[in-house]
């Protein structure tokens, strides 16, 4: 049986992987797929792809594009969540900052360099007409690190997924001063080149299984209640999140899509230059 290692953030976007793993759907196809949580997010997973700690990762689009351009030996095989990710912009509950404009010269907490939290801070700065070169970053590791940094005054604001952090807003840990949606589909599947070369058919089978699950995911019985309980969120928030989240259930990755995203990433100063989009992807459905 082929062993494959996969990683993703421990968030509701990835619950379809939990379902398919629990049902042993990969095992039935001769694949021993082993899941690992990465609370540190995309920056941690791009590092794990490089080291071979994981073979497949569910990563933020902007983070993996930037890292493949910088030498990560992996390819994007498919969009996983095709809707934008809504990033909440948070300050400590007792912070002196009242709105986004107040944050222009403030220190932003990021999980690590190259992470979504850093790249979206750049997008937010661009959206507000700030000088991106003057952004000040404080590396905090993960969401808990962001909580600690804002609480202790080591950083002034922190960007993380809106619904994941909503309980922290509700309980008074954070105050949200705004949102910043990604201007592109939010999550993609990335696979190490070595695995694609040696085990293409098995990787394709993994894609087929997860796509079949996400196609009907919103129609599962009581899915809102299940997610609310598992991720400790208000059911109204889960229902809102489900209403704006769209998974890709098998549409092939295309050079045109990646080119459009790269154009936007250049525009938003997230990358300095574009690469040939064909070098960043491997289409599983040709």
Automatic annotation (TrEMBL):
Main localisation: periplasm
Stored Gene3D superfamilies: Periplasmic binding protein-like II
Span of domain Ca3427-like PBP: 87-179
Keyword Signal: yes
CC annotations in GO: periplasmic space
Top-rank lineage group of the source organism: Bacteria
Keywords: Signal
Keyword Signal: yes
Cellular compartment(s): Periplasm
Membrane-crossing residue ranges in chain numbering: none
A Pfam family that the UniProt record links to this protein: PBP2_Ca3427_like
Protein name: ABC transporter substrate-binding protein
